[in-house]
Amino acid sequence: MRRAMLVLVILGALVVPAAAQAPGARTIILSTTTSTQDSGLLDVLVPLFEKQTGYTVKTISVGTGQALALAARGEADVALCHAPSLEKKYVADGKMHDRRLVMYNDFLLIGPESDPAKVRGEKSVVAALKKIAESGARFVSRGDKSGTHVLELSLWKAAGLTPAAPWYIESGQGMGATLGIANDRQAYTLSDRATMLAFSKRVDLKPMVEGDRRLLNIYSVMEVNPANGPRVNVAGGKAFADWILSPETQQVIKTFGVDTYGQPLFVPIAGKKDEDF
Amino acid sequence: MDVLADGVRQAVALLARADAEVLGILWTSLEVSGTATLVALVLGIPAGVVLALTRFPGRTLVVSAVNTGMGLPPVVVGLFVTIVLWRSGPLGALEILYTPTAIVVAQAVIAAPIVTGITLAAVQNVPAKFRLQLVALGASRAQMVWVVLREARLPMLAAVMAGFGGVISEIGASMMVGGNIKGQTRTLTTAMVLETGKGNFDVAIALSILLLLLVFVINWALTAVQQRR
């Protein structure tokens, strides 16, 4: 028993300091989407921001739906999301303010080589979805209220369709896991280009429809209304929003991904408006 | 299968060059889960002893609650701890959400019933006549408890292993209350989910091998103590 106590005491001496980590006043919480994290962009941007401003950033990567919901409760100080329709609703409700465009890339409709619904090369993504529904070919949806899911639902609505099982599969998971399921089930799915590129080694699905204006994937930064809850770091949130839109940061975004994928993953668009797209 | 081979190779490589980020993650996991286990022991052992040696109305209900708690789903604990620690929650003023401390709190909640339950069973397994004999020989209550705990030391170490093994491998609570923040609250399990999400299956496999190794080494040390003659 004495030896056991000794082991515990040693273990304790090692581990107790972990618990003592005081939160600084210069800490901000950034609620954002999984794609900014999974693509590795935040791993580049956040340390830069911390170094240049002295803030500590806690990045919470969740689906856009949850990211906005957290910000609306005052649990975050700034949000970086990609669901314009949903974002505008939060701004209109006064939960978020100063929504500014940061960057964009695009979504693609991808599917199996065999292309059972014959949608390859279709110009309109809405027309392609109609064909998929008619043919009953499998389609995997994120089903998680993420920005990708919000866009997908708006496309089904535009097509005048209500997708349903058995051919419509809801994964309820992130983009990476959803790509894996779509690959396994030889199904169509909607993916952002960054994640698709990151998975190109493992996933054998081919681009079917791209370049449709509706497939534009626009990221915006928004600041949190301090009335949403106690302890919102207003200055910190604004500092991050201003920083990500600064010419230097926009230049970093512009070149991000070139060395890994041979092409940039995001196009910076600070200063542009929704109407420009 | 080549993914698995790549993963094993990657794990060896990461360890061999003592990758700073991986070592940091390993350390965070060990610190957080070790602290949580300690907290659970401090709370769980006395609670288990009291439950084993006393009789009071409603005791069966409490013991049933402890036994249910042994299977407490980490994701449920994560959700409730998150809500309590929210800026708008009752303990929001502490501002510990998304810090290692928050993970310690959640994991201690998960491990405490496990320690309590196993302690309870271990102490009850010591024959009641043995306790009576101790008292008859003039042992004080504290001395009696100490000797009984000594008798129960084998299963008690099992409580440590079960508690630690349960929390170091859980993901739901760590993800929700920690936020998987790079360099701060990223643990082995949350890093594994992230790398899988990124499509880096080889890194995820490497991390899982590290996790298994870590748990094995700790259990080995504890087992060596337990089985010592």
Which runs of chain A of at least 5 residues are low in confidence (pLDDT < 50)?
A: 16-24
Measured distance between first and last alpha carbons of chain A: 71 Å
Distance between the termini of chain B: 44 Å
Give the ordered list of helices and strands of chain B.
HHHHHHHHHHH
CATH class of the largest domain in chain A: Alpha Beta
The CATH homologous superfamily of chain B is called MetI-like
What is the count of β-strands of chain A?
A: 10
Please give the oligomerization state of what you see.
heterodimer
Helix-strand topology string of chain A: HEHHEHEHEHEHEHEHEEHHHE
Rg of chain A:
21 Å
List low-pLDDT spans of chain B. Answer: none
The amount of beta strand of chain A, in percent, is: 15-25%
Tell me the count of domains of chain A.
2
Biggest sheet statistics of chain A: 10 strands, mixed
User: Please, what is the average pLDDT of chain B?
Assistant: 90
CATH class of chain B: Mainly Alpha
Helical/strand content category of chain A: alpha/beta
Helix content range of chain B: over 70%
Please tell me what the overall shape of chain A is: globular
Structure description:
- The complex is a heterodimer of chains A (277) and B (229).
- By secondary structure, chain A is of the alpha/beta class.
- Chain A has two domains: 27-105 and 217-276, D-Maltodextrin-Binding Protein, domain 2 (3-Layer(aba) Sandwich), CATH 3.40.190.10; 106-215, Periplasmic binding protein-like II (D-Maltodextrin-Binding Protein, domain 2, 3-Layer(aba) Sandwich), CATH 3.40.190.
- Helices cover 41% and strands 21% of the residues of chain A.
- In chain A, strands 1, 2, 3, 4, 5, 6, 7, 8, 9 and 10 form a ten-stranded mixed beta sheet that branches.
- In chain A, strand 5 (139-141), helix 7 (147-158) and strand 6 (168-170) form a beta-alpha-beta unit.
- Chain A is globular and about 55 Å long.
- The model of chain A is unreliable at 16-24 (pLDDT under 50).
- With 229 residues, chain B is mostly helical.
- Chain B has one domain (2-227): MetI-like (MetI-like fold), CATH 1.10.3720.
- Chain B contains eleven helices and no strands.
- Chain B has helices at residues 2-16, 20-53, 59-69, 74-85, 100-125, 128-136, 141-151, 153-168, 172-178, 188-198, 201-227.
- Chain B is globular.
- The model of chain B has no long low-confidence stretch (mean pLDDT 90).
- The A-B interface holds A 1, 3-4, 7-8, 11-12, 14-21, 23, 27, 29, 34, 37-38, 40, 43, 46, 58-61, 73-75, 174-177, 179, 195, 198-199, 201-203, 229-232 and B 28, 30-32, 34-35, 37-38, 41, 86-88, 92-93, 95-101, 104, 149-150, 153, 156-157, 160, 179-182, 184, 194, 196-199, 201, 221-222, 225-226, 228.
